[in-house]
Amino acid sequence: MTEEGAVLERLAELRAIVAHHNQRYYELDDPEITDADYDLLVTELRSLEAAHPEVGEAGSPTSTVGGAPSSQFAPILHLRAMQSLDNAFSDDDLRAWAERLERLLGDETPTLSFSCEPKIDGLAMSLLYRHGRLDRAATRGDGVTGEDVTMNVATIASVPQTLPDPSAAEVPVLEVRGEVFMARADFEAMNDRQRVLGEKTFVNPRNAAAGALRQKDPSITAQRPLSFLAYQLGVVEGVAEGSAWNPSTQHEVIDQLGRAGFLTAAEATVEVGIEAVLERCRAFDARRHDLVYDIDGVVIKVDALELHDRLGSTSRAPRWAIARKFPPEERTTTLLDIEVSVGRTGRVTPFAVLAPVFVGGTTVGVATLHNEDQVLAKDVRPGDLVVVRKAGDVIPEVVGPAPGQRERAGRGEPWSFPASCPSCGQPLRRAEGESDTQCTNRSCHAQLVQQIAYFASRGALDIEGLGEQRVDQLLQAGLITSPASLYRLEASQLEELEGMGELSANNLVAAIAASKARPMHKVVVGLGIHDLGPAGAKVVVRAFPDLHALAAATEDALAALDGIGPTIAKRVVAFMADPEHAQLVAELAALGVGVVEVRDGSLPQNLLGKAIVVTGAIPGYTRESAEQAITDRGGTSPGSVSKKTYCVVAGEAPGASKLTKAEQLGIPVIGADAFAALLEQGELPR
User: Fold this and answer.
1) pLDDT digits (tens, 9 = 90+) for 327-349
2) Which pLDDT score is estimated for 67?
3) Cβ-count burial of 493 within 10 angstroms (0-12 exposed, 13-18 middle, 19+ buried)?
4) Where are the domains of the chain?
5) pLDDT tens digit string along 134-180?
């Protein structure tokens, strides 16, 4: 076959594949591949079409929008086409888009301002109001014709049936565009209910929302927790100059929609220049999991509406807007094998060995499978194509087999948990009623490696140069047996090890010695007491400032501490009562490890007894320094909101769950601008 013939064959193949997946996604709400895999196919198709313009785009899925309307709903012809958006997958893509805008607008155009809005992973919707009353609701469909889902949309609480803004009653035709979605918390609660009822759970919020909206019976839709977020005005007729319904910028559109009773994106901002837009996109990406809804990118729009007319559109997308897509959080790859690892507490965890795949901004080769029950429930087997998810800093996990894998002929045998520990060979045990499998041999080499590496990690004693591989080497050589034995190492012993010379040996011994001066709460973290994290450790050492005092603490005294409670108190006392742990604590104390933490006496203790939760970015502070500022004044800064919380300080992109919990409990919430006054006065600013 000639090169030209091969190109034409691949083009035809890609067009058929993309058209098939468009139907699965837009029409059937049952995608077979992840969004990222779909984007790769479309990108390849666009590249081939751009390189071979002679084949044309007529009939290609790259020139169409969405999918054909479903025959189960009456068709609605949109007053103005609902287009899709072009995508930018990198900073360079976004800069190139901005350069195209400048060329189209000419040199006389000043630096552009852009509206930056979260790209919600939902279902595009058009709401048509006549004189302020909802007349009809339609899906995007193929962009020209949508589906009449008015009765279903009427069940969504965040869709006003009559706009409360009196000025809307004077507008003959008002089209509001936005996204129907399911909030993450609502989606999880709905799936929990489905599990209790023994019914099918939903794969993700987007599919759940789309499926709920396309129910023939509106009463079923009403049972699903759908929401609507407005972000655009479509057709507006009969509005005078100067009316609030005749705005001049996109950010004014959002403000007016909010005043009219619609839910809008509080995170939307206006940025001047493309470099500021890039910074805003990075901020969105870093905090995307703190939002109440799933987003897969940022929508960037030229803010001045008069420029929208000048820039115009292509056949499928406006030139004045683009979607900056985030690195994919889900991808499909091959499951090569299932193995198990042994943790510091003896917990044995299955993990997937994968054909490397780029997901969540990194290349992933292994992913957790949590426990034996999860492997069985997901029914993933070596050789399967599987969906892998990596969200932010969360450990990559296997979501399940890709669609069609369970029905595939020639699948491998179901995986079974090993009977013995892969490290020490001792039998593994799973207690009745427990989901975890344990290696109960405390001398297990793998457990010791993890325990000592955790003790030396950045969150604990922060011993530079002492990672898992080095700890493994020291244990194999018989030079250490516990965290305390680290402090007896001599440089002359280390010089004999492979990869260790005189300089590196001296550096490691010096780093170990320096760790003795770490604050006491770091030592408590390094002990690895179950459920006692950094925030809890700080609370504990304020009441019990050295290891001897902590070893003698009673359950009642610990449980009385704010942020500790009876469960953690019981775990601390049990840890200290264990003979091996008691010996370790005594050795560390005798070696002088850990500096007793004393508050800065120059600061007023005006927050004494007050629990203050910090969420989001506080200008001028890191998360740790903001919490330190609170604890230096006698307060505590737990990681979650409770009835004991004095107030919540909400910075930029705060955690939605914390704000929701504060609202439910009636806990005051203050902004980052009031933090300094709180520290100075010790009271909520008036």
Assistant:
1) 777 889 999 999 999 999 999 99
2) 58
3) middle
4) 3-63, 87-325, 330-405+415-437, 445-517, 520-590, 611-681
5) 999 999 988 899 999 999 999 998 999 999 888 899 999 999 999 99
Residue 107 backbone dihedrals phi, psi, to 5 degrees:
-70, -20
Tell me: pLDDT of 70 over 60.
no
Q: What is the 3-state secondary structure (H, E, C) of 92-116?
A: HHHHHHHHHHHHHHCCCCCCCEEEE
Whether 615 contacts 643, CB under 8 Å:
no
pLDDT of residue 319 exceeding 70, the answer is yes
Q: Is the pTM of this model over 0.85?
A: no
Q: Give the number of other CB atoms < 10 A from CB of residue 98.
A: 20
Q: What is the 3-state secondary structure (H, E, C) of 434-467?
A: CCCEEECCCCCHHHHHHHHHHHCCCCCCCCCCCC
The count of other CB atoms within 10 Å of the CB of residue 568 is 22
Q: What CATH superfamily is the domain 611-681?
A: BRCT domain (3.40.50.10190)
In DSSP terms, 139 is beta-bridged to: 125
Query: Rounded CA gap, 266 and 600, in Å?
Result: 39
Q: Do domains 445-517 and 611-681 have the same CATH topology?
A: no
Residue 370 buriedness (CB in 10 A; 0-12 / 13-18 / 19+):
middle
The CATH number given to 330-405+415-437 is 2.40.50.140
How large is the average pLDDT for residues 652-673?
87
Which member of 119, 378, 390, 658 is catalytic? 119
Which superfamily does 520-590 belong to?
Answer: 5' to 3' exonuclease, C-terminal subdomain (1.10.150.20)
Give yes or no: 643 in active site.
Answer: no
